[in-house]
Design brief:
Blueprint lengths: L2 H13 L1 H7 L1 H16 L5 E8 L5 H9 L1 E9 L5 H6 L3 E4 L13 E4 L9 H11 L5 E7 L5 H5 L12 H8 L4 E7 L2 E5 L2 H10 L12 H15 L5 E5 L1 E7 L3
Parallel strand pairs: 1-2, 1-4, 2-3, 4-5
Antiparallel strand pairs: 5-9, 6-9, 7-8
The chain binds S-adenosylmethionine (SAM).
The site of S-adenosylmethionine has 25 residues, from helix 1, helix 3, helix 4 and strand 2.
């Protein structure tokens, strides 16, 4: 990833570390979904060496540790604050960019929730993960698809994550190396009383790291007018989430 952008993404998530957990209700649901898909797909109860990328405040980490047993669990994040998540579940913490940090050898689970959209090349990341897995190992990953925050794109925001990919793209990246257990995507929408509350939500969840914009009174008024004109309803304004995921297994 471009180093400057990585720095901005990291600073943004670090700033929102305290507010993220309570505000990221969509990401919490996605973490639930991944764990449910693992169960439905027949994942084993125990993993010898698991590796989670972009653990953040631990929506997925905590669910995994409740449902499965790990002999060794390593959790990664760009933001040093996430060391707290590792400590809470007695996992090893690997701080750094998932695309460049050195990975532990031969994990039997590689997983990540709501992180790969921040990578410039999620396809290469998924292929590397598929290759790194031990025979019989599991890959369980979610990201976001092209409809993510479509309202913001329409009103001209540049906050869009660089690596949005549909579940079909994720499957295509790995299907020559792994057996696909399940994959899918969904669209859901959150409602806010006003566009300013949408911006607040983005700040609290740290996802505005690529938006360099400095708001002026005029630009904020234009943003608000445009958002309300195009999307306003009696219930406020919507913000679309487009989670996508894949669960796959490496042949033994
Ligand atoms: C939307 S949060 C998701 C956190 C958690 N997995 C969850 O489901 O709530 C994205 C996390 O990915 C981390 N992240 C973003 N880009 C990353 C990268 N290139 N390498 C490692 N972590 C990254 C951020 O610091 C942040 O904690």
């Amino acid at each position: 990833m471009n180093a400057q952008i990585t720095d901005r993404v990291q600073r943004s998530f670090s700033r929102s570390f305290r507010s993220y957990h309570g505000s990221a209700s969509q990401q919490a649901k996605i973490a639930d979904r991944l764990v449910e898909e693992m169960r439905l797909g027949g994942a084993p109860q125990q993993f010898a060496a698991a590796l989670e990328f972009g653990c953040g405040t631990g929506h997925l980490t905590h669910r995994l540790c409740t449902e499965f047993d790990f002999q060794n669990l390593t959790v990664n994040d760009l933001s040093p604050e996430a060391a707290e998540t590792a400590e809470a579940v007695r996992a090893a913490f690997l701080c750094g960019d998932a695309e460049t940090v050195e990975w532990p050898q031969r994990p039997d689970l590689i997983t990540s929730a709501s992180m790969i959209q921040w990578l410039h090349d999620p396809r290469t990341f998924l292929q590397r993960a598929a290759q790194a897995l031990a025979p019989g190992g599991w890959l369980v990953v979610s990201g976001f698809g092209p409809e993510q925050y479509r309202e913001l794109v329409r009103v001209g925001s540049n906050a869009k994550a660089p690596g949005l990919c549909g579940s079909g793209d994720m499957v295509a990246a790995i299907e020559d190396q792994l057996d696909i257990v399940s994959s899918g995507e969904s669209l859901s929408s959150m409602n806010f009383p006003s566009p300013r509350k949408v911006l607040e939500h983005l700040r609290r969840t740290g996802v505005n790291g690529r938006a360099q914009k400095v708001w002026t009174k005029t630009s904020l008024a234009q943003f608000t007018d445009h958002y309300v004109r195009d999307f306003g309803t009696d219930a406020g304004v919507p913000l679309t989430y487009h989670p996508t995921w894949v669960v796959a297994r490496k042949p033994k």
